[in-house]
Amino acid sequence: MQRPDHLPDFTDPPLDEVVLGVQFAPVPAYASVYSMKVWDIFEAEFPKVEEYPILEPQFETFGGANIQAGPKIHIGAAPTGSRLWFISEDDNHLVQFQPDRFITNWRRQPNTQSYPRFEGLAEAFEANVTKLANHFASDFAYQMDINQAEVAYINIIPVEKFSQAGEWFELWNVGAFDVEALNTSFNEVILGGDGKPFARLNHQIQSVFEADGKQRAFRLSLAFKGKPSGNDLESAMKFLATGRDAIVTRFGEITTDKAQRIWGRVE
For residue 82, what are the β-bridge partners? Predict the structure, then answer.
């Protein structure tokens, strides 16, 4: 996989986290006791384990009187058990597993590990999903049936004042008054070649404080979610690549030229 030439590129982007994930029909007869076999697959690369509450199934739906992103819809039995995080030794990478979900995260850490780019993350994600699918096929005679996919980019942009939003984003200018906090979000429906909606691109900008509680920052999250054209991994990977293109393109459109110069936009 090669990076498309038309996408904006930066030498020092404010990227803090990247998420790639697929949701699939729950594995029949799966129980929490089998999760040790899943960790066996990933332990060499992800030796640390943490446990979290399970994520509810979510589906992007379109049309109807009450449209909303990510409604909770149950199809068949809901997954049981817990969601496991398998974490790399340097804490930069993790994979999340539960009986109907597989997610990978790259997270910026204080160490010197550089961002591996979407192409590297996608290649590793595809390889890991393939390992999991092979485990399901051999141990449960189950073929992975992917029904949703998502890709998200989370950016942290340090600022002196939240009133500086207009210096970073093209969406508005609030410099005329003192802003204590800012929180805005909106969704964009993405249409396919047939003119029908198949995904949503969610934009969210929040005013936050970094870990020290003193440094102000804007948290810009762009998330692309929906149903791939098919239920196989190849279709999911194409969906994720489409989502990355939409996210990076929109990032270049909603951030200012001044901000992009600071981040080292490559001309």
Answer: none
How far is C-alpha 135 from the geometric centre of its chain's CA atoms? 24
What is the band of 78 on the pLDDT scale with cuts at 50, 70, 90?
A: low
User: Is 0.85 surpassed by the pTM of this model?
Assistant: yes
Q: Which residue has the tokens 């990227």?
A: 15
Range 157-165 contact pairs with CB under 8 angstroms and sequence separation of 24 or more: 157/14, 157/217, 157/218, 157/219, 157/220, 157/259, 158/210, 158/215, 158/216, 158/217, 159/216, 159/217, 159/218, 160/216, 161/216, 162/207, 162/216, 162/218, 165/205, 165/218
Q: Which two tokens stand for residue 111?
A: 């160490």
pLDDT band at 247 (very low <50, low <70, confident <90, very high): very high
Gap between the Cα atoms of 131 and 125, Å rounded: 10
* Amino acid present at 173: N
Q: What is the CA radius of gyration of the chain?
A: 20
Residue 72 DSSP symbol: B
Neighbours of 134 (CB within 10 A): 12
Q: Is 213 left (phi over 0), alpha (psi -120 to 50) or beta?
A: left
- Domain regions of the chain by residue span: 15-262
CA dist., res. 267 & res. 258, Å (int): 14
